[in-house]
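Example 230, ligand glutathione.
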Amino acid sequence: MTIVLYELAGAKDERFSPYCWRVRFALAHKGLSYETRGLAFTEIPRAVGAPHRTVPIIDDDGVILSDSWTIADHLDRTYPERPLFGPDGREKAAYKFIEAWTNQMLTPAMVPLLVFDIYGRIKEKDKAYFRETREKRVGPLEQAANDADAKVAALPKLLAPFHYALEQRPWLGGEAPDYADYILAGTLQWARIVSPVQLIAPEDPLTEWFERCLDLFDGSARAMPAARAA
Ligand SMILES: N[C@@H](CCC(=O)N[C@@H](CS)C(=O)NCC(=O)O)C(=O)O
């Protein structure tokens, strides 16, 4: 049975959720066929019912799960070919740290730079909900990206652990890409799709790595148009 992936969809059907991209990469890594269903923010709580209130959500032959890590873990257990968490799945604990660093340190530094662009891309029916919930976190959306240069300048420090890892190996997963790469690639793909702002300098080593991520799986991530003209 084809897996169904529920994900966020913008007004022009942009699929920009970083967490959904992690799952898309994971599904492609496993070679699993899937179809996607795009949802507005305000449609998520009713899509499959409680307790699933965020996307990604998958329906894998009646097994319904949300949370990107939970989904990746499910995929790895159910389809053990081509492990996601290191050569024999043994790196799960270390990858959890990569997820935590990305979600808790990097993402909050990116949100102010992107949130008004996201607002511009979501469906009309989501706008009031998005403004209300996000302004509680970042203040007025229109002002969130004030001092953008300083905010962008703060990013390399947060990316330093990834720079260090990629000096040692071609992929965060080591000799081949895996979920370690998809965590960060999902987050950078979010920025690529929603915003024309250049968050990572072209000469930054992460740019070359991210371009390789975009080329994976026949360029499936690159096929989603970037906000910034190349
Ligand atoms: N820890 C979750 C986070 C998922 C998440 O926050 N998804 C956002 C979209 S990027 C969402 O569904 N938000 C719903 C809302 O804000 O109402 C995961 O890794 O899947």
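Summary: Residues 214 and 223 are 8 Å apart (CA to CA).
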